[in-house]
User: Which sequence fits this backbone?
């Protein structure tokens, strides 16, 4: 197929589908309904490290997890979630909450939307005790 | 010799069909409220990975094709280009696909290329297009060499490979439950392939088939989809980024970091490249066998059931 046909078809095909999905309301990030859901989301990634404490953000978009092996974060990946330990994390205050930079190529940066009280408190809790 | 054989570039010709089918699946899911899930950034990443795959084929395809044409010049065999030969080529190329795909899950160097196809937590038609950008660097074109040497023209082999990939597009859906029994017995189907994309311990390293599920049944890797256990899609450790570059290269970066660890023997460095994903020199990670073993410790009642039979 000539590139002059293939390239526009691919470009507009991708753009059109993305716009349509967004207009259909399918861009909403996952919600962690309660602590049990946050705990389950953590265990989905680290099934052998049971949380000892779960702290949900006010908007239920993220959770701070404490475990015997260290602290971690659960956060939305689109309509789903993922989780990481905070070993080696650099935490920066932002206008909307916190930015966490991780030494992890698969999860280099996490933006947490937190209210002012959470943004003050969480960095002290996020510090890995290990 | 049939040196000048030409076949249509079927994967490129199928692009309008791919787009139309995605729209149909999406409309179906939205109207029915079941049959799968879509999310904007996930789908966008998958589609960009698909476009990148086409681009990498255009840019790097000459390497594999040059290798095949070299073999074609060397081989004394030429099976011609009859319909029967094309059908035979399609079946044998599907057997080739089974083994390349199995290596893709069992050899980390090859997994580094294939992993991105499994990196979505969704399972819809866009997932089918979440394809590798780095396939050339796995050197798996070698597995196609016997077909060329046996007398199948390289253009025919690549044509059959393209048809194989197009077949696999439609099986990436939750909108179809199960096909008729006779079809499920012989062909790869949405049900069989959902198992392949499952990160459940039961479903790891199963159903490598491209078109014919019979290869899995022959080589002992077939696991049926159980109504009692819905596949949980994605990777054992899911990605925390939608960046297509990171999706495409993350496992290569992982290998690079692992082999550069201080204090490793050269054997360990080699093993990080060629052992199954999850292998580590100190046993600190889990391969799929380890994950299954640990699952059975927690759930001994699952022993002997599909996916836990060995």
Assistant:
């Amino acid at each position: 197929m000539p590139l002059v046909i293939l390239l526009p078809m691919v470009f507009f095909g991708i753009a059109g589908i993305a716009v349509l999905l967004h207009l259909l309301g399918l861009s909403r990030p996952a919600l962690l309904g309660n602590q049990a859901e946050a705990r389950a989301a953590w265990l989905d990634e680290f099934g052998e490290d049971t949380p000892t404490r779960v702290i949900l953000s006010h908007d239920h978009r993220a959770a701070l997890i404490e475990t015997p092996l260290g602290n971690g974060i659960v956060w939305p990946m689109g309509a789903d979630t993922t989780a990481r330990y905070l070993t080696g994390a650099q935490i920066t205050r932002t206008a909307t909450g916190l930015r966490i930079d991780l030494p992890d190529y698969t999860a280099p940066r996490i933006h947490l939307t937190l209210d002012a009280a959470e943004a003050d408190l969480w960095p002290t809790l996020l510090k890995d005790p290990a | 010799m049939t040196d000048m054989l030409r076949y249509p570039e079927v994967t490129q010709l199928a692009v309008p069909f791919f787009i139309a089918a995605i729209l149909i699946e999406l409309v179906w899911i939205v109207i029915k409220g079941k049959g799968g899930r879509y999310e904007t950034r996930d789908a966008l990443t998958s589609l960009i990975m698909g476009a990148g795959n086409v681009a990498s084929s255009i840019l790097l395809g000459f390497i594999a094709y040059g290798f095949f044409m070299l073999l074609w010049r060397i081989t004394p065999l030429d099976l011609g280009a009859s319909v029967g030969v094309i059908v035979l080529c399609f079946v044998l190329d599907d057997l080739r696909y089974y083994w390349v795909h199995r290596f893709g899950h069992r050899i980390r160097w090859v997994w580094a290329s294939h992993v991105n196809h499994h990196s979505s937590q969704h399972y819809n038609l866009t997932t089918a297009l979440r394809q590798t950008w780095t396939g050339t660097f796995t050197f798996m074109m070698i597995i196609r060499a016997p077909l060329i040497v046996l007398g199948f023209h390289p253009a025919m082999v690549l044509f059959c490979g393209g048809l194989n990939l197009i077949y696999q597009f439609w099986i990436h859906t939750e909108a179809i439950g199960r096909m008729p029994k006779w079809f499920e017995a012989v062909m790869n189907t949405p049900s069989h392939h959902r198992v392949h994309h499952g990160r459940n311990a039961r479903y790891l390293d199963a159903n490598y088939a491209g078109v014919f599920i019979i290869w899995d049944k022959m080589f002992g890797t077939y696991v049926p989809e159980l109504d009692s256990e819905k596949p949980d899609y994605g990777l054992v450790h899911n990605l925390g980024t939608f960046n297509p570059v990171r999706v495409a290269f993350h496992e290569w970066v992982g290998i690079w970091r692992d082999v550069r660890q201080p204090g490793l023997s050269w054997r360990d460095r080699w093993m990080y490249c060629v052992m199954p994903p999850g292998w580590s020199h100190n046993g600190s990670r889990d391969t799929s066998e380890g994950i299954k073993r640990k699952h059975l410790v927690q759930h001994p009642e699952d022993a002997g059931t599909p996916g836990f039979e060995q």
About this structure: Chain A touches chain B through 32 residues (CB under 8 Å). Residues 35-126 of chain A form one domain. The first strand of chain A starts at residue 53 and ends at 56. Chain A has a mean pLDDT of 94.
